[in-house]
């Protein structure tokens, strides 16, 4: 496909990995949309455009000549970005999803963060602009030192180190191990680095399907807990095993937002929101992309922490 102008909205770690992959692996032009000046990124050779998400004229100016928008911003800013992209005749738009399959998500969930509204708006504009949902399951980086918060990803409060399934520093876990039928629950996981590679590969597709999945590893939560113990050289203890009914009860009595988000994410895991059947679409489309194994990633990430 001919060279195109691609706008990446946001400056979280995922956005910057996508921008870096475009810059280094393609001949496409990438522009990073940011709420503030980014002198460090500019000094590294990136084209950055300051935007005001409350101003349609600011957004439309930034999107002039853009073929594809990849968003990592959520809520009202993303809705305004979609509206402006349509006005500027942007051909394709990928909203800030990068989680489980959208069909399994509830618009009333505390985890939604305006994502269902963005998908609905994109469906309304489907005759004018293509869109896709990138499905990757859980980021490996949820288990990073510092958690997702260290990567400036996600608007949830409960995205710090130890907030999801396992506290690898203190070696404890609260694990949604069972699904509603009392079978082991499963989930798919992918590193942000591999997500960026697959997203950039998809830029050269002639058209986008409504959903594109990718996966680094698929396993049960039980196997994940065991793997973490192997990578850290000692078992997690204590481990609190959970199932959907228990989590639903906990959610009903939780009155702290952080606790509600933590429980809701565990409940979504137990209910299979982050699970999808292999092979993932983009893994099949681009077999040359060698994904990072979770065992290697965990061992490397926590090597310096005793």
TrEMBL record:
Q: Tell me the domain of life.
A: Eukaryota
Xref: InterPro entries: NAD(P)-bd_dom_sf (IPR036291), NmrA/Isoflavone_reductase-like (IPR051609)
Write out the GO MF terms: oxidoreductase activity
Q: Does the keyword Signal apply?
A: yes
Enumerate the transmembrane spans.
Answer: none
Annotated signal sequence range: 1-19
This chain belongs to the protein called Uncharacterized protein
PANTHER family, per database record? ISOFLAVONE REDUCTASE, NMRA-LIKE FAMILY PROTEIN
Q: Which UniProt keywords apply?
A: NADP, Oxidoreductase, Signal
């Amino acid at each position: 496909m001919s060279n195109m102008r691609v706008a990446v909205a946001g400056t979280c770690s995922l956005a910057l990995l996508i921008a870096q992959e475009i810059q280094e692996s393609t001949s496409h032009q990438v522009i990073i949309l940011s709420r503030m000046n980014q002198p460090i990124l500019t000094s590294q050779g990136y084209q950055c455009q300051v935007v005001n998400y409350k101003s349609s004229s600011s957004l439309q100016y930034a999107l002039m000549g853009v073929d594809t928008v990849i968003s990592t911003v959520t809520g009202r800013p993303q809705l305004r970005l979609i509206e402006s992209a349509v006005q500027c005749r942007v051909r394709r738009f990928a909203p800030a999803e990068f989680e489980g399959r959208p069909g399994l998500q509830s618009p009333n969930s505390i985890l939604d963060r305006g994502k269902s509204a963005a998908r609905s708006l994109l469906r309304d504009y489907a005759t004018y602009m293509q869109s896709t949902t990138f499905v990757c399951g859980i980021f490996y980086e949820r288990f990073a030192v510092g958690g997702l918060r260290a990567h400036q990803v996600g608007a949830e409060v409960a995205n710090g180190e130890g907030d999801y399934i396992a506290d690898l520093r203190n070696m404890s876990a609260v694990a949604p191990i069972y699904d509603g039928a009392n079978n082991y629950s499963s989930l798919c996981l992918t590193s942000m680095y591999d997500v960026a590679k697959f997203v950039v590969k998809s830029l050269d597709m002639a058209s986008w399907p409504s959903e594109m999945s990718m996966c680094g590893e698929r396993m049960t939560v039980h196997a994940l807990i065991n793997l973490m113990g192997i990578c850290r050289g000692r078992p997690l203890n204590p481990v609190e095993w959970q199932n959907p009914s228990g989590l639903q009860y906990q959610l009903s009595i939780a009155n702290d937002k952080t606790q509600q988000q933590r429980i809701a994410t565990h409940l979504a895991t137990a209910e299979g929101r982050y699970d999808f059947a292999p092979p993932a679409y983009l893994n099949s489309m681009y077999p040359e992309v060698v994904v990072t194994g979770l065992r290697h990633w965990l061992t490397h990430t926590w090597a310096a922490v005793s």
